[in-house]
């Protein structure tokens, strides 16, 4: 694409330079460049259905994937709550490519079994009507798992454990978007 643009521009410039006609040519070059996935959860605001001790919702978006609850980097809801949930408000809607969830690695990983990851712009009924990106069936001892969300749109990412009386512990939730930057250059010839 870049070679074709350069060739085309030089042919146009050559034509006007050879004829000696004083013309104004404005040429715009546009480049799209994709950057690595960006974790937009880091700038979000987290909340959860309840909080156990020091384990606030914001601990799950602090950028640390430390999976040991005792180290103080995990969120945790209060004891035996029905349908516990955790949510991050990204402050605006994004096209989400993936959500990465880090569960507890020291114990109790099975508590997140059956949790659903919802993405959308709705907060009615706590966002339960938003579409699902995936369900945590079992993380099989691997504390971090990535869910591909196929470019779902949403401002809110909700992790909910429906139909269970349990705890929700999340050590990190990362929400990825693919950033595309547009570069535009212009040339003016008189």
UniProtKB/TrEMBL annotation:
This is Si:ch73-359m17.2. It comes from the Eukaryota. InterPro entries: BG_Antigen-Binding_Lectin, FTP1, Galactose-bd-like_sf. The keyword Cytoplasm does not apply. One of its GO terms (biological process) is regulation of cellular defense response. GO terms for cellular component: extracellular region. It is found in: Secreted.
